[in-house]
Amino acid sequence: MSTGPGLESLVNQTISIITNDGRIIVGTLRGFDQATNIILDESHERVYSTREGVQQLALGLYIIRGDNISVVGELDEELDLVNDLSKIKAHPLTPVIH
């Protein structure tokens, strides 16, 4: 499995990961390996709800197995700071079905 040229450029950057079970985890990419296992620092999970704003659950230093990752994306920190997550309501993502 190739990790592609993209992950190297994201080390020490804030990224957002969507897992196969529909979780959204945001943190600073500290490292990864050939199986795309990812190490995040200062991470948190964003939990979406249709009833209340986005909750952020602190995770700290966190490892995500590569086979549980659906999407990895760079997070624009300036744009993210402008968003008031307490006012955003949305349905949680459903798990990926293979």
Explain this structure to me?
With 98 residues, the chain is mostly beta strands. The protein has two helices and five strands; from the N terminus they run αβββββα. The chain has helices at 6-10, 77-82; strands at residues 14-19, 24-32, 38-47, 55-64, 69-74. The protein has a five-stranded antiparallel beta sheet with strand order 4-3-2-1-5, with no helix packed on it. A hairpin with a 5-residue loop joins strand 2 (24-32) and strand 3. The longest helix has 6 residues, at 77-82. It is globular. The mean pLDDT is 91. It is found in: Nucleus. GO terms for molecular function: mRNA binding. Residues 2-78 form the Sm domain.
What descriptive keywords fit this protein?
98 residues, mainly beta, 5 strands
What's this model, at a glance?
The chain has 98 residues and is mainly beta.
Number of strands: 5
Helix content: 10-25%
How does the major sheet shape up? 5 strands, antiparallel
**Low-pLDDT segments:** none
**Roughly what fraction of the amino acids lie in strands?**
35-45%
Q: What is the typical, i.e. mean, pLDDT?
A: 91
Give the termini distance in whole angstroms. 18 Å
Strand order of the biggest β-sheet:
4-3-2-1-5
What count of helical segments does DSSP give? 2
Described by the principal axes of the CA atoms, the overall outline is globular
